[in-house]
Amino acid sequence: DQERAEMRQCIDELPYEPEFHYALCQNLVSNEDFESAEQSLVEALRLDPNSPDLRIIRAWLDRMLGKLDNHETNVAQLTHVAEVFPQDASVRLELAVWYQFTSRWRELIRCCDDIIGLLGESDDETDERRPVFLQDAYGLRGNAWLALNEFQRALDDCNHAIQLGTQVSTVWIDRARCYLALQEPESALADLDTVLESNPEEIQALGLKGDYLLSQGEYEEALEVFQAALQILPDNSFMLDRTAIAMASAGRIDEALQASQKCVELDPEIAPLRLTHSRLLATFNRHDEALAEINRARQLSPDDPAILYQRAMQLTSMLQRDEAIEQLN
User: Fold this and answer.
1) CA–CA dist 292, 278 (Å, integer)
2) What's the CA gap between 57 and 64, in Å, rounded?
3) What is the rounded CA–CA span in Å between residue 242 and residue 204?
4) Running DSSP on this structure, what letter comes out for residue 147?
C-alpha cells in the first residue's frame, strides 16, 4: 500500500511519465486488482502507445478480465511486437496463448516452435524465466496437438513440460487425455490422481476420471466422482448431465430423470443435454415428451447427425416408421 501511494504521488507530480503509470499497473496486477491496473495501463499507453511491454500487459489483462472479443487486435499487435523484438520469448508466449483462445492451432504450434527454438539455443543459465517459458511452450504445443488429434505428438510435448517441472494442472490432464486415446488407462488415471491429490477441486480432472469410469461400466464409482464435482459446482450442467447418465446406468432412473430435468432448466440452449433428457423420458414411456425434447435439440443444432439419428429411433419406437426411414435417409 505504501509503495502504491508513493507511485501515485509520483504520477501527481509527473503525470506525463509513462513509466510511473506502468509501475503502478504492475503493482496493481501483483495484487490482482485488474480493473484498477487496466486504468493505469490505458493512461500509460496513451503516453507511450508503441511500448512492447505495455502491449504484452494489455493482452494479458484482456485475458484476465475476460475481454476475449479483443483477440484480433491483440494478436495483430503482439505479432508486430514479435517481429520488432524477435528474441523476446515472452511476447511469443503471450501470442501463443491468444492463438489457443481462438483455436488457431497451427499458428500456435509454429509460435511455440519459435519459442522452443529460441530458448533451446540460449546458453544463459542465469535466466530464471527460461525453464518456465519452455514448460509453457511445450504445454501449449501439446494442447494444440491434442486438439488436432495428434495424440503421440501431444504426449511427447506434455512429457517434456512435465520433465521440466511444470505444475500447470492442465498439462497433466492433457497427458491423461493422450494416454486414454492411446489405450493406456492406468497411466491416465495415475496422472488424474496426481492432479486431484494436489487439488481435489480440479473439475476437469474429476470430469475426465468420471467419464473413464463410466465408459468401463463402473457406474457407482463414476457417480461418486461426478457427485464430488457437484459438491464444488452444484449448478454445473455438464456434471449434472454425466451424473444423470451414471445414475441411469446404475438403475437409479427416477433420480436420473430429476438430474436431467435440472440440466435442461439450467442450460436450455445446449442440445446434448436435451438428448439425455429425451432418452430418460423415453425410459418412462413418455414418448411424446421425449420427441419434443429431440425437436428442441434439433432447433438448436439442425444438422447434428446424433440428433437426427436419435429422432429416427424415437419415431421408430412410436411406430412412426415411415417418418423414421425418411429421417435416416
Assistant:
1) 8
2) 10
3) 13
4) H
Q: Is the pLDDT of residue 155 over 80?
A: yes
DSSP 102-122: TT-HHHHHHHHHHHHHHHHS-
Give the span between the Cα atoms of 318 and 305, in whole angstroms.
Answer: 20
| Cα radius of gyration rounded to whole Å, the chain | 25
231-284 tens-digit pLDDT: 999 999 999 999 999 999 999 999 999 999 999 999 999 999 999 999 999 999
d(CA 190, CA 210): 14
Assign 3-class secondary structure to 300-324.
HCCCCHHHHHHHHHHHHHCCCHHHH
Helix (H) or strand (E) holding 150: none
Distance of alpha carbon 302 from the chain centroid: 26
Q: What is the Cα 92 distance to its own chain's centre?
A: 20
pLDDT of residue 61: 66
- Burial annotation 216-234 (CB, 10 A radius, 16+ → b, else e): eebbebbbebbebbbeeee
Q: Within its chain, how far is the Cα of 25 from the centroid?
A: 27
- Selected residue with higher pLDDT from 35 and 139: 139
What separation in angstroms does the CA of 224 have from each of 78, 161, 165, 188, 221?
45, 31, 31, 18, 5
- Which residues have a Cβ under 8 Å from the Cβ of 318 and sit 6 or more positions away? 287, 291
**Residue among 201, 160, 157, 199 at smallest CA distance from 178:** 157
Three-state DSSP at 50 gives coil
